[in-house]
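Entry 14. Structure prediction run on the chain below.
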Amino acid sequence: MSTGVLGRYARGEISGPVTARQAQADAWCVVEGRLERMPGLAAKLGIGFDAPPESVLAAAFAQLGAGMLDEIGGNFALLAWDARVREGILAVDPLGSRSLFFHDGGRARLCFATEIRELLRLLGSEPGPDEGAVSRWLAFGSLEPDETLFAGIQRLPGGFYLRLSDGGWTRHRHWRPSFSTPPRTTQDEAADLVKDGLERSVSLRSAGLSAGILVSGGLDSSSVAAVASAAGPSSLQAYSATFPDDAAVDESEFIDVAVHQLGLPSRRHPVEAAGALAAAAEHVREWRLPSASPNLFFQRSLLALARSDGVEVVLDGEGGDELFGCSPYLLSDLLRGLRLRSLRTRSVELAGGDTRLGREFLGTYALRGAAPAWLHRARARVRRRPAAPGWLLPRAAELTRDRPGRWAWLELEGPRWWSWLADTLTTRRERMGVHDHFRRMQASEGIAGAHPLLDDLGLVQLVLRLPPELAFDRNFDRPLLRHAMEGLVPDKIRLRPTKSYFNTVLVDALKGPDRRELTSLLQPSDAEIRAYVTDDRLRDVINGPTERDHPFNWSRNAWRLASTELWLRSLAAGRSAEPRSAETVPA
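Output returned:
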């Protein structure tokens, strides 16, 4: 397969990605990613089993048009073109785990690429920041699925395609989540379905490859490791970050249990609380965008370790919390159905047995979730201030009104529990840049990533078809996954009621070794971020965490402000950030 999809479209012609072989063909395709169901599609078209994927897709487009997208699966971005009718499509997979970015140059001219940095090279100039998008990114850590931080550059959302023709281009959907009433299913039956689905997903991503697995000692990564280990390959290797200076985060004890019972060779990388901003600066330099996660400074080290061992693909357990967690807005469905006894029971289960917290959840989820979408929109219109942090400057705060906001999921057709969960497993991950983050991080280290719990459409659809009550438990989160992994994951991990988070590592880094770099970025009177954030807030971040800030919230906010400042400075300098550390970014 090709390593990317990029090019220009104008007046019914494609230029840029066309090879000599493609230019001589009536129909051709360029694709990036991992495809599924290709043998079946080839057989349906009467093409040889060993035909290259691009040839199969080209023939499929010539016969089926955009309908070909219903016949393939996997994680992909593609361009298909039929020179006979001078029409084509640009498309991404249903979950948006691969990306296509594009810029409308007017007069039916379009530039497109699978990465923004490649698109910027095609454009020949760097657009300025989209002030509304930057404001939303600073306030909420997310964007809308179709927007980017650059003015005039759009992202094609998951499940969409662009139809290219002589008349220009139009956007269409080829997939959307749809609700169907869950069948009556016991917990044992549902757990078997989860186990089968996870085995299929892991196998598709690792079969025939030299594979590694990131093992944190938690339930999700241990589940993926257990399934991968049971199915082979024999060369599976575990890679783990350890935190010897932070006992609250370090999971060496659980890592030892997992790799010992699963019989996995294990390599460890000890992490120091330093270098978060240097990693953020490197990301801006390489990708011309701020990173979506502050954990780059130790995640990339693990991938580099795997690459040095000759590993071809690295599996992980990212996404398990959302995939197998309960949908809190089941409470609103119970309220709307006047099932008050079940409402009380589920609210207490959601609160882990805490009846006082359960009563609070009745307001947070039951009442607010039961309100119709139009009421939330009306409330947003009449609110004197937008629902943005008070530390945004008035203009930036006002710009956050421009998009649908946190209640947009109510527009999906289905009960509240399903609509919220469907949005969480599809659109919300795109808005937070989750897929783009992992893809770029892995590409930086020259290794392929595999995320069975994050980007597998089959698992997402399975979970959306299961009765929501099965995800509730008074004592444990992710009860179905725990049940499915009985006998595979060590009980010390499987029945562990808590999990570790890496928040304290970032807090310690920004309070300690990275403090001088944080100050040098946010303190100058000409800092670019001051166009969005109040001086008081920047002073609090530099001096913090203050009594008003929870340390974890302070660290995430401080890192987002600093990493966005790195990117804004790179734009102001007229080029991508070149420095190796935050201190040397041109002011």
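Confidence is low (pLDDT under 50) at residues 575-587.
Filed with the rest of this week's runs.
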